[in-house]
Amino acid sequence: MTIAVVMSAVLVSAVPGNAQEKAATDSLYVDFVVPDLPALAALGLNPSKISQPGNLKELSVSVFPLVGSNSQIGPGVALSWAPVFTFAKDVDTYRRSLLRRFAFSLVTSKEGSTDAVNAGAGLRFMLVDKTDLVLKSKTGGDCTDPNRASDYECSVFAILESEDGPTRKSQAFLTHARPTLLKVAQLMATDQLPAAQLLAELVDDWDLRKGPVPFTVRGLRAAFDRRVAAVARKHSVPVPELPMALSSEIDGLAVEYIDQAVFVASTITPRLGKLREATEEERWNWAVISADFGILGQSATGSWSDLEAKKYGGLLSVAQPIGQRSQLVAQLEGRRGFGSATETSHIGGGGRWLIGTSSKRFSAEAYIADTKDTDSTKDGESHRYTLGSEFRLTRGFWLEVAFGAEHTPAADGTHLLSLANFKYAFKSSPRFTNIPGSVED
What we know:
Blueprint: H1 3-10, H2 19-22, H3 38-42, E1 59-68, E2 73-81, H4 84-87, H5 91-96, E3 102-111, E4 117-129, H6 133-136, H7 152-160, H8 166-188, H9 195-202, H10 217-235, H11 244-283, E5 288-299, E6 308-321, E7 326-337, E8 343-356, E9 360-373, E10 380-394, E11 397-407, E12 415-425
Antiparallel strand pairs: 1-2, 1-12, 2-3, 3-4, 4-5, 5-6, 6-7, 7-8, 8-9, 9-10, 10-11, 11-12
Helix pairs in contact: 1-11, 7-11, 8-9, 8-11, 10-11
């Protein structure tokens, strides 16, 4: 990542008093959990049978299966969207919005090795989400409130307001820069347009909390020249001709600005990164409960014109911490067929045990189900047991692998099972672009 992007991520100022609540910090994108998609889970198309109820992502995709999996589930792709991250542009709106509990998804897949194509839609409703830093933080007061001492947003503000933070460094730099900028303002001032008013409009480009764009001395100087011209046009005064000495002073300010910006970024970025890592490790293993619902159609020929609704279903998934590094996920699901569907009913459940960290975990899964189906190859009891792992390759990009044994109604005994899937959350950060530290560093 370039230093300019780092600057845009880090050099944002906290604001005092109750205004902090208006710019509350959701600077951690909560990427602890594989983004399981509602349509996959509710309709039984997820190669990993136990769905994790974890936090919502704005836009996620799942491609399955990479290898192995159930022979009745052919290649497929699913897409999920949580609208709250699209429409809630600040944290106050996010806290109030009912949309923060919903995610919608679409899925399409082949029916095994046949020509039939499945297509479905799903809805996830978050009943409980203790991992959500925004909802866990306390509202109604600023960061001087002792009740908010442990809030993540207040921890970020403390870093930004520290001695080496952008707020204090910006205040010191502007104190140093004002005499030079005042000379420019005095060249433009008139009896009706005092220099102090013009100065207030010229200092904006030199605020260290914003970071320079572009991130070069020449680019910063050019941006200031454009600012001077824009202010002159606004007040219908001539663009001043800067004496060579004053022009050199401004070039010197640009050099100092870049030096200060690099210092602040190199100092604050690691501290914000360590805070985020510590918070991820603390928060990934908190209680979450979600309910998924879906409807599935099928086209026997693979043509969308032949698509016919076949079944609907739902599931309840609960994640409960078992110690600091261990979590148990329990799931109960059911489906019913209608119309020309061969499946009349399905009920199943199971659990997954996870042990590890926020970015890599060992998993053990057990699942059992009973299906009533007029197709003898699908009618009866099925069960599976797997051991595997899930790990985050990069921000938002997760890979699941598992090996085990499975019994299906079509088989006399059990057979070996292997599966691998990847899931990706397109917008891994930020949730809100106007919040300190909310862009990946």
